[in-house]
Amino acid sequence: MPRYYFHLRSDDRFVWDEDGVDLPDPLTAQGAADKTAAELRGGLLHEVHNGSRCTIVITDEGGEIAQVVAL
User: Fold this and answer.
1) Taking 90 as the threshold, does the pLDDT of residue 71 lie above it?
2) How high is the pLDDT of residue 3?
3) What is the pLDDT of residue 36?
4) What letter would DSSP give residue 26?
5) pLDDT of 4-63, one tens digit each?
6) Above 90 in pLDDT, residue 70?
7) Per the CB 3.0–4.6 Å rule, which of 7, 37, 40, 61 could disulfide with 57?
8) What's this model's pTM, rounded to 2 decimal places?
9) What is the rounded distance in angstroms from the CA atom of residue 20 to the CA atom of residue 4?
10) Domain span at residue 14?
11) How far apart are CA 31 and CA 44, in angstroms?
12) Are residues 10 and 49 in contact, defined by beta-carbon separation less than 8 angstroms?
């Protein structure tokens, strides 16, 4: 099963996901990112939001960007 990584990027920071998650395909990875983005929008990011734009950058095992999801 392929491994996908969910990195967090803002205007001035990039937080690497060093562990990743095994998921069956890119569509499932997209769904996981959408769910995570929704949770982050309603939680801590809302409380500490400083006007910067944040995204989740999904990469595959080879480091290729599979999807970018806005928060």
Assistant:
1) no
2) 97
3) 86
4) H
5) 999 999 888 899 999 999 999 999 999 999 998 888 777 655 555 556 678 899 999 999
6) no
7) 7
8) 0.81
9) 5
10) 3-70
11) 20
12) no
Rounded to whole angstroms, the Cα distance separating 6 from 23 reads 12
- Three-state helix/strand/coil letters over 40-67: HHHCHHHHHCCCCCCEEEEECCCCCEEE
Domain count, the chain: 1
* Tokens 């006007």, residue located: 51
CA neighbor of 3 nearest in space, from 21, 25, 27, 26: 21
Helix/strand/coil for 17: coil
Give bridge partners of residue 8 from the DSSP assignment: 15, 56
Question: Can you read off the two tokens belonging to residue 18?
Answer: 């060093």
Which three-class secondary structure state does DSSP give residue 5?
A: strand
